[in-house]
Fold each of these.
Amino acid sequence: MTIRETRELWEKQYLSPFASLSADTKGREIHEELCDIRPEYQRDRDRIIHCKAFRRLKHKTQVFLSPEGDHYRTRLTHTLEVSQIARTIARSLLLNEDLTEAIALGHDLGHTPFGHAGEYILDQICQDGFTHYEQSVRIVELLEKDGRGLNLTWEVKDGILNHRTVGQPSTREGCIVRLADKIAYINHDIDDAIRARLFVEADLPAQYTDILGHSVRERLNTMIHDIIRNSMEKPEVIMSPGMEGAMLGLRKWMFEHVYKSDIPKAEEGKAQQLIVSLYEYYMDHVIELPEEYLLLMINQREKKERVVCDYIAGMSDRYAIEKFKELFVPRGWRD
């Protein structure tokens, strides 16, 4: 018996009846021989960690553009925090931790430079629209490995696509990531906003913090425990109504006082104009795209508009800025 088979047997014996077993995956679009060491979802997790799109997340904005300080979250640190929260819940509920981790690590691969400001403007200017969750799936299906994609399992791609608020994941593990994403960004964005001196902890609405907790640590602990208590040995992964209501209320408050406030949005207009300029330039000079993107049009018959959007969406913040300087700022004026 191989190491993989031993692990698959362990899953059948010890995981919850509601868990997604590695041996029962719906599989990959392109058939591959099974690994003798790793179950299928573990292979997916490893592929995501080693892909280029994952590495680029370290230089992509979470909320604050060009923050002064090393302790503000990036899209990568957000992803790691989601993964940690999701794995804790999955392990406690005896669900598949490998699948949970793979979904968590891949859920934001499609995010643009400059956070949601970049996503919004690409959705406005791209002919077919743009969403980061669909782009994340496009990355793992097509864009990675020079047009070959990562060939991930159906369950991982389903979880990535459906991690958004209105998503409906098909697995319990995907449902965990959907909740863990909100728990992570609400709390770490509060932490970053306090660091940016937008407000202090005492300014948060007591009607929510009296339920959730009066510090990041308390809120994380409270919400994670609530999910575990309300989901143990049940077919759903849910929060109690009061806890979910408080979480969504605090999320709404954050949209009003942080995500749409003047400080994080102060530079967004400039960032969006930068993206528009890059998009228009490459639409007029498509031959200057990197070879891997040109091959998408030649070999995969992808539309020019889609490929230009792919290239810009994949940029890190600083790469986009450097490209803009290279194309539009006279050499003597550059920093």
Amino acid sequence: MSGGLDSAVGLAVARRDGYQCYALSFDYGQRHRGELQAAARVAASLGAAEHRVVSIDLRAFGGSALTADIAVPKAGLGKGIPVTYVPARNTVFLSFALAWAEVLASSDVFIGVNAIDYSGYPDCRPEFIAAFENMANLATKAGVEGRTHLKIHAPLIQLSKCEIIELGADLGIDFGLTHSCYDPDAQGRSCGLCDSCRLRLKGFKDAGIEDPIEYAPH
């Protein structure tokens, strides 16, 4: 649970499909830590059985505008993998989720990755999800003993941002609880210019739905 659109809709889909949901967020040294408050709001509003925040300091490695002293690009989506990519982030996150799932005796992990309207991160692609699922079933005691077969669910991976927002609206999500911006101002207002804001704004525009969050004037 990042507190953004995709993870919120992912949680709503899991709830719709009858799962008891345990939400996991990460305080990883990200510059946009306000997303953690958004994650807590969304988890509570969607009835998560528990919401945990795990601290892991990816600033120790840096290499990203989200975890190092590197400016967040504001000129629009460019070519290639942007500097907002955090090295191995989803691999790290899914590994923690895998550990908690094994303790909970759960065989289902949901992640809100998207490979249509996204910034080009390699760890949001279907190939990555399939490879991690295969690895997970080799890496756990429960998998080796045959007590469970872990499934990584990525229900949004082939949806456009517009379709994700429409699905979220159908599931009754309060989008005003979410946060997407990589570089909010001191008042917590979204910048409206980073990749994440641009994708969000375009999605709401295409869906014909007003984005309820506040943006900084520019």
Amino acid sequence: MTHRLLHIEASPRREASLSTALAVRFIDCARAQTDDLEVDRLDVWAEPLPDLDGALLSAKYAVLAGRGLDGAEALAWGQVAALVDRLEGADSLLISTPMWNFGIPYRLKHWIDLVTQPGLSFTFDPETGYRPLLTPRPATVLLTSAGDYADGPSWGRPNLAGPYLHEALRFIGVGTPDIVLAGPTAGGPDARAAAQAAASERIRDLIDARRRVA
């Protein structure tokens, strides 16, 4: 049976990116463990993600108000629904991203804002609160950073990216992601090589553990 992996690639550096290199490592390890792995790659820098304004924003508030959508709103909402369907149709999720200014690249935040929509990925009831609508699945975040955040803040700098992605994916129902930290990417070559090796080993162990549970 085909296993569909949705890979959200958030680094614009392509070949020079450690997060992308680790994603290749993850996919190679997964292929070795899965008979039929299909990778759906969504590069947030190349994907024509719709702007969250105009008809799309109007459609969102129409959904919240329980109002029907007009033609432009329905067309815009359909674009978002297609992104949510693409996520929901995946058997597992992989996000590879660098840390930017303690958080995530704005294009990755854009994708998350688009797939986090009422009636599509979550719902709200005044009596019971928010409820996710997506199906839980294995999710992995490969998070690279200039500093070393393995034991907490790096020289006083916080890691806001990991906790944010943890909560954002949990909120819509994807589940709790396994977050693989890789840093430092700045500094001497020995430190960078050690960070990459440690992250690669963590990836291998993570995939092995999932195979034993499956």
Amino acid sequence: MKVTTLIADDEPLARERLRYLLGSDGEIEIAGECRNTREVVSELKSKEVDLLFLDIQMPGQAGFAVFEELGSARMPLTVFVTAHTQYAVKAFDVRALDYLTKPIEPERLETTLALAKERLKSKAAMATQERFASVLANLETKGGAREKYPRRLLVPNGAKSSFVMVNDIEWIEAADYYSSLHVGANTFMLRETIKELANQLDPGKFVRIHRSIIVNVERVREILREGRSVGAVILASGRRLRMSKVGWERLLEVGGKR
């Protein structure tokens, strides 16, 4: 994951040192540098920033003025940087992520970055869960005419055939020219490709989250984002299934297809 980062300090050498230290972390992406609070406010209003390193003592107004003008809710994760320690209590009063004293030690900065990344992952996971909850609500409340989709599938098995209720299918996995239907502890092999099944099943209930996986939305318990292009879903049974970026988008949009 890339962490867009803004550096705010009126001292050029201090900005240069922090930029140098951050450069050793491949996940940090410097979004800009500011010399005073006015520039910080302008930058935060014009772009999305994940992490802010904010010097407390700058010409004009102190770094705390940024919180006063934008409000804590609109602030990115903020790490206060200063040569003095008397502002530490106030820094945490405004819910700063951390408080670093100059000169910043590489080991101390590494700890702060680890904390920031963990906080950002938790925030992203919570946002995803909220969006998915909204999708499920749409699935339950949206009415109107719907296209007819099969309620059960006939699965040949040697000399006999079995009926599989579609709603009982938890997930489907591609197996060359076959598809594996996972129903509880049982697996049924159907001679149809996963693409053919995706075209047959109700897209409001069955979503192709990966080129080789279709999932029953009603059996999904959690969605996990593990980067910008990959992720996973956890089923009610505890089964973990991989998910592509396109699959994640389909899963979040499924409510609008009903």
